[in-house]
Design brief:
Number of domains: 1
Largest sheet: none
Shape: elongated
Radius of gyration: 15 Å
Structural class: mainly alpha
Strand content: under 5%
Mean pLDDT: 90
Length: 96
Amino acid sequence: MEMSLLKKPSAYLPLLMSLPALAIVLAHVTIFGTAKEGDEGAAAHLFQLLVAGQVLVAGCFAVRWLPTAPRQATKVLVLQALAVLLACAPVALLGL
């Protein structure tokens, strides 16, 4: 894959944002378990902000690069989508 687009902040920031989102979920499960809570805590809000931010940055990337480099941009968008799915997988699998 042509790596020049991955050097763009709008390409790599969503990938980097997935790491703390996943870490937040895993840390929360490790510390508090998977029991349902009455109110969403700070961990849930941070996770939601990171995922929403990923979607916004990826959208900006798509608007900017899909028209000019569709093949390369599609590959980066697939990586970004996989990163979001990886971060969201524990939430879905554990029913959090």
